[in-house]
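#dry-run=false #mode=assembly
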Amino acid sequence: EAQVTQNPRYLITVTGKKLTVTCSQNMNHEYMSWYRQDPGLGLRQIYYSMNVEVTDKGDVPEGYKVSRKEKRNFPLILESPSPNQTSLYFCASSRQGVNQPQHFGDGTRLSIL
Amino acid sequence: LAKTTQPISMDSYEGQEVNITCSHNNIATNDYITWYQQFPSQGPRFIIQGYKTKVTNEVASLFIPADRKSSTLSLPRVSLSDTAVYYCPLGAGNKLTFGGGTRVLVKP
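#status=ok
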């Protein structure tokens, strides 16, 4: 089954403790991206990747890192999480870029205390 | 920054047609128009995509005027399960920007 898989689905952690949210897709897609969704602010793009080893900032990249060492994986790294990063996070992928339909994961709900 | 404007919310009743319009005045020549549906605590789901004129699939129709500065998603004969938030994000280079979406409530 074609899918985008995020882990973990839920995480409660404390300020400053590094964490990684993994994202994997099995569709051989080139474009992958991360979004955060907050009440009243909609979905905002954090980082995107056009292909392996090619990543770039979205609209809200501060406090996040990403890497794209393999085509299928696009982890989101919070080196020193803070409470303002408490949010619902979505990973997405598409065959090539923003003009192809995006396939979203089921989301990761992060709570930073 | 690519920007779209949609109504914040719409109410409808089962069996009616729902039309949601999205304004995207600064759409680029090579941008496609894509609509997504999102249920609470789930990722957005692709509904339909088009470039110009009219596109129809098994769940919706998309109407795009010649100037492409707006688009209208049409949901025929909605049911309670169509209650969701609908988005028409816009690309800007390689970024994708989502607006606030339209919250559609279908009543019995």
